[in-house]
Amino acid sequence: MSSSPHIGFVPRNVARLLRTRFGKRSRVRLDDRRPCLPYPIPHAGPLLEIMRGNGRKTRDEALAGHSSETRRLRPQTPSFIKSNLLAARTRPADDREKVHG
Fold first, then answer.
1. How far apart, in whole angstroms, are the C-alpha atoms of residue 60 and residue 58?
2. Tell me: the pLDDT tens digits for 85-94?
3. How far is 75 from 59, CA to CA, in rounded Å?
């Protein structure tokens, strides 16, 4: 059995870690995100800029050590996976999938 995590769990874990890190940087409670929902009102602009900056810093931490090419291509991977899985839904299953469900 492989010790690497299953691809289905990695995105969820990464999303949780990103939310946690962003929350620490922004000093918000992540169990109740209602108070930090920005509304497009004139005085929300500065807060939105702070949040964008915090998001940029969190992404930079997450991608530290990766080349700029890897950083550019990495966000596309989940979209490719999603597209492949959506396309696979329209194709008939092979024999093993039919037997094992």
1. 5
2. 778 878 877 7
3. 11
